């Protein structure tokens, strides 16, 4: 693996109860890339992300660069409105470690909030009172707390309205520009893929295509991924988006 590569995956396979969910997946991720994982429901997108995080058993090879430091934002994070936990207290529980010295940690917490454009005053807000977009920013800040150089997202705008979606993706794009963070994200929105991704991994349990979105998201690849009639919807979206970016 060369110095520009932060992740190399070779012949990756994952099976549950003898049924293969992913088979023969191979790809490389370069430093600073924004990689989108796309495919139909049940294609294995979230399984791939969880496997990269070391949460699932697999066959094959996953090799991270020696300096790779991974942050993760989950797909959904349900919070009870009555939960008596503030944003600041949530960060004190970071990665299962209760940080007793809040004064020493508060500066880092405020720094993480500033990075995602959350008012520092929110440090004392209860998590349950935050909107979906605010909570997602807090989760991104949480993922940034240990200063990773690669972030993994499983549909980072799930449950957020369209206006909020673009705000979150603009934020991710800005973080990538400012800090050179490598991003790997599951997305079902072709408009997001075209606007923000430098490369795409197309999955339907096996690798269907990979490379720059404009080059590999061909009508043939979309038809293979999404079938009929969904193919027409995605192909039309792809054509319109390609004209605008």
Brief synopsis:
With 245 residues, the protein is α/β, with parallel strands linked by helices. The protein has helices spanning 45-52, 87-92, 102-115, 132-144, 162-179, 190-196, 213-216, 219-226, 230-244, and strands at 5-16, 19-30, 34-38, 59-64, 70-73, 150-154, 182-186, 199-204, 206-211.
Description:
- The chain has 245 residues and is of the alpha/beta class.
- Helix content is 38%, strand content 25%.
- It has one domain: P-loop containing nucleotide triphosphate hydrolases (Rossmann fold), CATH 3.40.50.300.
- Strand 6 (150-154), helix 5 (162-179) and strand 7 (182-186) form a beta-alpha-beta unit.
- Helix 6 (190-196) packs parallel to helix 9 (230-244) and helix 8 (219-226) runs antiparallel to helix 9 (230-244).
- The chain is globular, with a radius of gyration of 19 Å.
- The two termini are 32 Å apart.
Question: What characteristics describe this protein?
Answer:
245 residues; alpha/beta; Rossmann fold; six-stranded mixed β-sheet; three-stranded antiparallel β-sheet; 9 helices
SSE arrangement:
Layout (H helix, E strand, L loop, with lengths): L4 E12 L2 E12 L3 E5 L6 H8 L6 E6 L5 E4 L13 H6 L9 H14 L16 H13 L5 E5 L7 H18 L2 E5 L3 H7 L2 E6 L1 E6 L1 H4 L2 H8 L3 H15 L1
Parallel strand pairs: 3-7, 3-8, 5-6, 6-7
Antiparallel strand pairs: 1-2, 1-4, 8-9
Helix pairs in contact: 3-4, 6-9, 8-9
């Amino acid at each position: 693996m060369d110095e520009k590569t932060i992740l190399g995956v070779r012949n990756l396979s994952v099976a549950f109860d003898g049924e293969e969910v992913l088979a023969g997946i191979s790809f490389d991720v370069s430093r600073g890339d924004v990689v989108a994982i796309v495919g139909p429901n049940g294609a294995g997108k979230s399984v791939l992300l969880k496997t990269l995080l070391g949460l699932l058993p697999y066959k094959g090879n996953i090799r991270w660069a020696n300096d790779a430091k991974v942050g993760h934002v989950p797909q959904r994070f349900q919070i009870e409105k009555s939960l008596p936990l503030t944003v600041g207290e949530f960060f004190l529980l970071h990665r299962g470690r209760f940080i007793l010295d809040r004064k020493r940690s508060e500066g880092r917490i405020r720094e993480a909030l500033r990075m995602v454009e959350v008012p520092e005053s929110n440090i004392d807000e209860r998590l349950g009172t935050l909107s979906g977009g605010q909570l997602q920013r807090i989760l991104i800040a949480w993922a940034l707390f240990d200063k990773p150089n690669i972030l993994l997202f499983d549909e980072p705008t799930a449950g957020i309205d369209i206006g909020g979606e673009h705000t979150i993706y603009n934020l991710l794009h800005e973080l990538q520009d400012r800090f050179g963070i490598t991003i790997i994200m599951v997305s079902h929105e072709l408009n997001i893929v075209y606007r923000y991704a430098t490369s795409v991994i197309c999955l339907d349990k096996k690798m269907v295509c990979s490379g720059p979105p404009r080059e590999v998201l061909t009508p043939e690849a979309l038809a293979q991924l999404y079938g009929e009639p969904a193919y027409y919807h995605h192909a039309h979206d792809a054509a319109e988006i390609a004209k605008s970016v």
